[in-house]
Specification:
single chain, mainly beta, nine-stranded antiparallel β-sheet, eight-stranded antiparallel β-sheet, 34 strands, about 50% strand
């Protein structure tokens, strides 16, 4: 499900894929997929919402209605509708108030995952464009990607889809006709979805898509054998010469453990025809000195992407696990990527719960994505019968050039009725946010606070967050949804 906001009418357009992806011969079987929209009302009065669903060919399938109180959150569950089993298509979400939204994905019948279920999430796209990019694409026995492209207009269009490997080689192109409000899915493990002669030894790369007549949006989901991660398609509005990853980890429960409990990776894409030298700086959470714990360099080839992984080095930069040794095994923080030749880049961050087999993805951000007001549509604190079932964490980063005082930050936890249940500000927060600094709040263990800070939410809380900073501040957030057997990650949504 992919959204784009029409600012005048308050309308959001969503691409919704509910059918199981093809169990391809070369990539992991993703199981059976369903997806729901989690929507937060950014307005000051009740939002009257209409959701209209369309099949992949653009024909109307169903319309439903709902109301959402100011600040409140509602989930539009496809399982609660009369949509036919196996439905795949698009939705238009219309409202008389501005909305923030994410899409929640759930895949069942995944044999290698805990409980047979995997989870993903990605953001509603607020600005569809004629050109979109997918920086993180895989297609081999260990990981497979399924990408959905949506036509956000009632007019037909023609897509040109170009596929690249990590070296920047163009591996072929496809031309796809797309009806108004139609959508198409590309499975990297399905040969019929790929250009003729596509190399059978492809492992990872990127996809660029252009539309001849209308604006488009999209989302991509990566499937491992035991987990998944999803992210929204990126456009020129998401590109910049400096990218930020607010949430990054290299953490083992014990230094001698063979695997990381939590580790991260970046995929950075260069959509131009000129190679882009970059500097990658890793900053420790809570360190306000401004000094990087680790600084690396790399060159992103023209029309290609590179990967940096704290566990194994990644691909495309010539790095290995030892390259990240200065971070140690008990590190959390954020990353800043600078294009030294001022070439625009886009990117994604990847979080892996290594011991548990969970994963999630989010979009790297620029100052264009920063705001003094951020909405977080999906937050949870649920432990029925005393057993934790679902909880959430927010990593809030200041990417501005000056310190934001804790006294000037207010973080509200709002339930589904629009009631503020917990408010954190000033001394209730971990501290000031220096330039580049970040802190984390976790509804289960407190994050950088004591766990008791969230006791007032109770044991069955569902809702969202409103983050308010001083006027002109540049705040960004990445958010984790964690279950007892799976997890997902998404970006905070600026006002």
């Amino acid at each position: 499900m992919t959204f784009s906001k029409r600012l005048i009418t308050g309308t959001l357009i969503a691409a919704l894929s509910l059918v199981a992806a093809t169990a391809a011969f070369a990539t992991p079987d993703p199981g059976t997929a369903t997806s729901n929209a989690v929507v937060q009302n950014q307005g000051t009065t009740t939002a009257n919402v209409v959701v209209s669903y369309y099949a992949q060919d653009g024909t109307a399938a169903l319309t439903t209605e709902a109301t959402i109180n100011a600040g409140a959150v509602a989930e539009f569950k496809t399982a609660d509708t009369a949509l036919a089993s196996g439905f795949a298509g698009a939705a238009i979400v219309s409202s008389d108030q501005p909305l923030a939204a994410i899409v929640s994905l759930k895949n069942s019948d995944v044999s290698a995952s805990k409980g047979g279920i995997t989870q993903g999430a990605y953001n509603a796209t607020t600005a569809p464009a004629s050109d979109i990019s997918f920086p993180s694409v895989w297609g081999f026995a260990g990981i497979g990607s399924v990408s959905t492209i949506q036509n956000t207009s009632s007019d037909a269009t023609v897509l040109t889809v170009d596929f690249f490997n990590r070296a920047g080689d163009n591996l072929g192109s496809r031309t796809i006709n797309l009806n108004g409000y139609g959508s198409v899915t590309i499975d990297m493990g399905n040969a019929s979805d790929l250009p003729s002669g596509f190399p059978t030894d492809f492992s990872d790369g990127s996809i660029s898509v252009s539309s001849s007549a209308t604006d488009i949006a999209g989302a991509s989901t990566a499937y491992w054998t035991n987990r998944q991660g999803a992210y929204q398609a990126l456009t020129s509005a998401n590109a910049g010469t400096t990218l930020y990853a607010p949430s990054h980890f290299a953490f083992k429960s014990n230094a001698s453990d063979p695997d990381y409990a939590l580790f991260s990776a970046l995929n950075i894409q260069n959509t131009t025809g000129t190679a882009a030298p970059i500097t990658i700086e890793y900053f420790t959470r809570g360190d306000t000195s401004g000094n990087a714990a680790l600084s690396l360099t790399c060159t992103v080839p023209a029309n290609s992407a590179v990967g940096l992984n704290v566990k194994n080095g990644g691909s495309g930069c010539g790095l290995n696990a030892a390259s990240f040794a200065p971070l140690g095994t008990s590190w959390s923080g954020s990353v800043k990527v600078v294009s030294t030749d001022n070439i625009n880049l886009v990117g994604t961050g990847i979080t892996n719960w290594g011991n548990n087999g969970y994963g999630g993805m989010y979009a790297m951000v620029t100052t264009n994505d920063a705001s003094d007001t951020i909405y977080i549509p999906a937050q949870y604190r649920r432990q029925p019968g005393g057993s934790w079932a679902q909880w959430s964490a927010i990593n809030l980063q200041n990417i501005g050039s000056s310190t934001v005082a804790a006294a000037d930050i207010t973080i509200k936890y709002i339930d589904t009725a629009g009631n503020t249940v917990v408010t954190l500000t000033g001394g209730q927060l971990p501290g000031d946010l220096a330039a580049g600094a970040a802190f984390g709040l976790n509804t289960r263990n407190g994050g950088d606070l004591d766990a008791s800070a969230f006791n007032a939410l109770g044991d069955g809380w569902i809702g969202g967050i409103l983050v308010e900073g001083p006027a002109g501040s540049q705040l960004v957030a990445v958010n984790n949804i964690v279950y007892s057997n799976r997890a997902s990650v998404y970006n905070g949504i600026p006002q």
